[in-house]
Automatic annotation (TrEMBL):
This is C4-dicarboxylate transporter/malic acid transport protein. Belongs to the tellurite-resistance/dicarboxylate transporter (TDT) family. It is a multi-pass membrane protein. The keyword Transmembrane applies. The keyword Transmembrane helix applies. The chain crosses the membrane at residues 12-30, 36-56, 77-94, 100-124, 136-155, 167-194, 206-227, 247-266. The lineage of its organism: Bacteria, Pseudomonadati, Bacteroidota, Bacteroidia, Marinilabiliales. GO terms for cellular component: plasma membrane. It holds the Pfam family SLAC1.
């Protein structure tokens, strides 16, 4: 069992669920229903298989779980479980209208968010031997934002069908705000790391594409809030603010795309780092960027109700 697949399972493997789910949702909105359904059911299988492996790892390889949590590079990978769970929940709402199962996944994602978020930040705060900034942080840390906004998106999507819908919108808004400010916090550190520490070509991997993806899903979370807030409630007062902030994050995510393409060309064409880099990360990021743009365009320019 020492070298089993379960023991060596990387915490970030749920990024595969994130990538497949966001593309399935985007395909559904673009009327590619057949492709969307195939990806939807395929992603259900991915999620259940990875969930079973994660549960087995918790029970049989607890020390490996703790070791990963203490690791600055692998620890943030656990946030992909939260994001993957919430994205699967969004799939169930959008593609199947399976509200009951989506609500279960929302509670799972919420519980995991509380447990993983506070465990990770407590651990890295009290840890005595800490790496330097250039060794400790990379784009993977932005999955913290992705997970937070994925929970916000699922919660706001389910809010109209909740008995306490306005309170659900309030909590979804709080998650959105936490994710938005965390993006600014963590992105400031990443920009500092990229600008003032040497960066080897092989270090500029797929996690840095999450620079764009985290802002993109923040755009999506804001868009879903705008669409689901009742203008006649107190939360309706936030709609103008959300429109501006949503466009702010869409602009930020779009800004990253040319830069990452240029840096990718430098990495692969000039420095000869072999392809490919992680396809699921780039697939998820581009899907996350395109989905909220359709929603944001609709909200900002055509949604006359607000």
């Amino acid at each position: 069992m020492k070298n089993s697949v379960v023991q060596s399972l990387h915490p970030a493997y749920f990024s595969m669920v994130m990538a497949t789910g966001i593309v399935a949702i985007a395909a559904w909105f673009l009327e590619f229903k057949g492709i969307s359904l195939i990806l939807h059911y395929l992603n259900m299988a991915f999620y259940l298989a990875l969930l079973a492996m994660l549960v087995a790892r918790i029970f049989f390889h607890g020390k490996a779980i703790i070791a990963d949590l203490l690791d600055y590079q692998r620890g943030p990978g656990y946030f992909t479980f939260i994001a993957g769970t919430a994205i699967v929940g969004n799939q169930l709402v959008i593609i199947e209208n399976a509200l009951f199962y989506a609500k279960i996944l929302l509670w799972v994602a919420l519980a995991a968010w509380v447990l993983i978020t506070y465990s990770f930040f407590v651990v890295i705060t009290i840890k005595e031997n800490k790496p330097t900034l250039d060794k400790g942080i990379n784009g993977a840390w932005l999955v913290i934002i992705v997970s937070t906004q994925a929970v916000s998106t699922l919660m706001s999507t389910l809010a109209p069908d909740q008995p306490f819908g306005e309170f659900s919108i309030f909590v979804a808004m709080a998650f959105y705000m936490v994710g938005a400010i965390m993006y600014i916090y963590i992105m400031s550190l990443i920009i500092y790391r990229l600008s003032f520490f040497s960066l080897k070509p092989d270090e500029l991997g797929a996690p840095y594409w999450i620079n764009m993806g985290a802002a993109a899903i923040t755009t999506l979370a804001g868009s879903r809030l705008i669409l689901n807030i009742d203008i006649d409630t107190p939360m309706g007062d936030f709609i103008p603010f959300l429109k501006g902030f949503t466009f702010f994050y869409w602009s930020a995510s779009t800004w990253w795309i040319p830069l990452m393409l240029i840096l990718g060309s430098w990495r692969h064409l000039f420095k000869k780092v072999p392809l490919p880099i992680s396809p699921q990360v780039i697939t998820w990021d581009t899907g996350a960027w395109s989905s909220p743009w359709e929603c944001t365009r609709f909200v900002l320019f055509y949604f006359q109700k607000h």
